[in-house]
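Exam revision sheet. Question 4 asks you to relate a sequence to its structure. Input first:
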Amino acid sequence: MKFVIDNWMLITIALTSGAMLVWPTIQGAGAGSLSTGMAVQLINREKAVVVDVCETEEFAQGHIGGARNIPLNQLEQRLPEVVKNKGLPVILVCATGARASRAAAVAKKLGYDKAQALSGGLKAWKEANLPVEKA
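Answer key, structure tokens:
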């Protein structure tokens, strides 16, 4: 006990630095942890399928090139038709990433273990100056 009392400041610093090291892991544990750079790598190297879960009108205003549109409320029924190979990575995208996170949970429930939501959604994609198509 004397050691703890005498070295309380060092113990506090050690605990704080440990918490700061673990924080990014905890924060990135959600479904929306896929960065734009990682998404581009998945698309180019592993032939990932991009599924935009925005409504049809939003999709027409702008989407990632080659993305397929399945509105979130239709995802459970239509995803198996659009992405037949459950072994392929699936990148789920929406305007800001909120709906895509829910969509990733649905996709994983359907057996798409490599499904991930794009963190920040289409907004982050545009901010990274990556190409966007319009319908």
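Marking note for examiners. The radius of gyration is 20 Å.
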